[in-house]
């Protein structure tokens, strides 16, 4: 089961170098997944441009880009199908509230993520039924 990393980590000063090395290795290992998600987000943005204004498409794509940051840095998910409903609802919304200073409402987050996961399902045949149900 995929996990969300929350809370604080206390690292003894004599182990800080080892911690940074492990974190760097983990980021390098997840980079292909991150790049594939970013590529899907670019395609999602282009898809939205066929239906909505540039401003709306950019807003949805920027929310999804921050969702990708959240998924890649705060979870151990390695495939889109592993993303849980709690990650897209509770955890992401809490993370957004703590990390992003803007006027985006929780409903706008839900709409952008719903459009993204519908795009993945309909256009790319990447289906995560749990997330789709959670976002409706």
The structural domain count equals 1
Q: Give the topology string: H per helix, E per strand.
A: HHHHH
Question: Class by helix and strand content?
Answer: mainly alpha
Quaternary state reads single chain
Average pLDDT level: 91
Characteristic terms for this protein:
136 residues; mainly alpha; single chain
Please render the helix and strand layout as text.
Layout (H helix, E strand, L loop, with lengths): L15 H34 L4 H21 L10 H15 L6 H18 L5 H7 L1
Helix pairs in contact: 1-2, 2-3, 2-4, 3-5
What do you see in this structure?
It is a single chain. With 136 residues, the chain is mainly α. The chain has one domain. Helices cover 70% and strands 0% of the residues. It has helices at 16-49, 54-74, 85-99, 106-123, 129-135.
Précis, in short:
With 136 residues, the protein is mostly helical. It has helices spanning 16-49, 54-74, 85-99, 106-123, 129-135. It has one domain (15-135).
């Amino acid at each position: 089961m995929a996990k969300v990393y929350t809370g604080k980590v206390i690292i003894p000063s004599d182990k800080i170098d080892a911690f940074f090395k492990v974190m760097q290795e983990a980021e390098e290992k997840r980079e292909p997944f991150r790049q594939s998600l970013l590529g899907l987000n670019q395609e999602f943005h282009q898809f939205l441009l066929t239906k909505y204004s540039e401003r709306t498409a950019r807003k949805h794509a920027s929310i999804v880009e921050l969702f990708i940051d959240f998924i890649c840095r705060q979870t151990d998910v390695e495939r889109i199908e592993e993303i849980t409903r709690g990650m897209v609802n509770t955890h992401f919304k809490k993370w957004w509230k703590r990390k992003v200073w803007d006027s985006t409402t929780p409903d706008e987050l839900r709409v952008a993520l719903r459009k993204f996961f519908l795009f993945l399902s309909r256009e790319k045949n990447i289906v995560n039924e749990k997330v789709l149900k959670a976002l409706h």
